[in-house]
Amino acid sequence: MNKVFIIGLLTTILLFPQYMFAQNNPTDRMALQPKDQSIIAISALTAKGDLVNLKPAINKGLESGLTINEIKEAIVHLYAYCGFPRSIRGLQTFMEVIDERKEKGLIDETGPDISPINNEASKYDRGKQILAELTKIPQDGKPAGYAAFAPVIEVFLKEHLFADIFERDILTYAQRELVTVSVISAIGGAEPMLRSHLNICLNVGLSPQQLKEFVDIIRSTLGDKEGHDARAVLNEVLKAKNLNTSAQEAACTRLDQTLLFPKGEKIKNSNFTGTAYLQMLVEADSQNNNSIGNVTFEPGARTRWHIHPAGQILLVTDGVGYVQEKGKPKRVVRKGDVVVFPPNVSHWHGASADSAFVQIAITGREKGETIWQEIVTDEEYRQ
Question: Which residues pair with 97 in a beta bridge?
Answer without folding.
Answer: none
